[in-house]
């Protein structure tokens, strides 16, 4: 087991935290592509294109090349859309981490260090919809440090923070492609309480489903 240390965010962590988040989110592009290829309408379009070209050209090579080109173009488009989402996050709460997470008593941001190097992050701040709920955000662990209990320890840090500040629960959102994260949250004690499809054109086309998790803080006394 690797020895790691969890501490609160400091200003000098800024670039490392943002790079860690962007790199971690970029790793989901291949999984998103596979998810997209499983959508019924995508399968139908590719099948119809293949059959149409095969019938008209009497050649197997042309439809194969066309399908390959369509998939490659789709991969590029999906990567572009996903990079826009990452940029949006970097320009939102991660633009000024100090002000967003460290400026009030009810929010905080933590990093996990190994040999004085930041390898994981997590943030927490009050939910905009329900102030009695603490929102867990920006959980990210460097790829070569996953599976070592760091994410679980960060989760427990957020839960302890929520308990100390009298929150009723900790909530978070995950995408359908974040399989390892969803398993980890369930093992910690979070439970799914809602699913919804992102209300955007891309969200509907890709059936991009968000699962909302909750960890209820037991009341004292």
Q: What are the salient characteristics of this protein?
A:
alpha+beta, 7 strands, GNAT_dom, transferase, transmembrane helix, seven-stranded mixed sheet, transmembrane, NAT_camello-type, 221 residues
Widest sheet: strand ordering: 1-2-3-4-5-7-6
Spans where pLDDT lies below 50 across 5 or more residues: none
Shape: elongated
Helix and strand content put the structural class at: alpha+beta
How many individual helices?
Answer: 8
* Major sheet details: 7 strands, mixed
What does this structure look like?
Helix content is 48%, strand content 24%. By secondary structure, it is α+β, with helices and mostly antiparallel strands. The chain has a domain at 29-89. A seven-stranded mixed sheet has the order 1-2-3-4-5-7-6, with helices on both faces. α3 (40-57) packs antiparallel against α4. The radius of gyration is 21 Å and the shape is elongated. The model has no long low-confidence stretch (mean pLDDT 92).
């Amino acid at each position: 087991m690797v020895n790691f240390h969890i501490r609160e965010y400091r200003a000098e962590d800024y670039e490392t935290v943002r790079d860690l988040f962007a790199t971690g989110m970029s790793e989901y592009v291949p999984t998103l592509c596979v998810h997209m290829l499983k959508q019924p309408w995508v399968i139908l379009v590719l099948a119809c294109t293949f059959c149409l070209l095969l019938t008209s050209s009497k050649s197997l090579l042309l439809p194969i090349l066309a399908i390959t080109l369509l998939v490659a173009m789709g991969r590029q488009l999906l990567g572009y859309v996903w990079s826009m989402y990452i940029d949006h996050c970097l320009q939102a709460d991660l633009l000024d981490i100090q002000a967003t997470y460290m400026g009030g008593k009810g929010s905080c941001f933590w990093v996990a260090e190994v040999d004085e190097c930041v390898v994981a992050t997590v943030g927490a701040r009050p939910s905009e919809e329900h102030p009695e709920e603490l929102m867990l955000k920006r959980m990210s662990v460097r790829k070569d440090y996953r599976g070592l209990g760091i994410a679980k320890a960060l989760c427990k840090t957020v839960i302890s923070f929520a308990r100390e500040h009298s929150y009723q629960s900790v909530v978070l959102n995950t995408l359908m492609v974040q399989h390892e994260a969803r398993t980890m949250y369930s093992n910690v004690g979070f439970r799914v309480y809602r699913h919804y499809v992102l209300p955007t054109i891309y969200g509907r086309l890709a059936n991009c489903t968000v699962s909302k998790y909750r960890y209820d803080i037991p009341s004292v006394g």
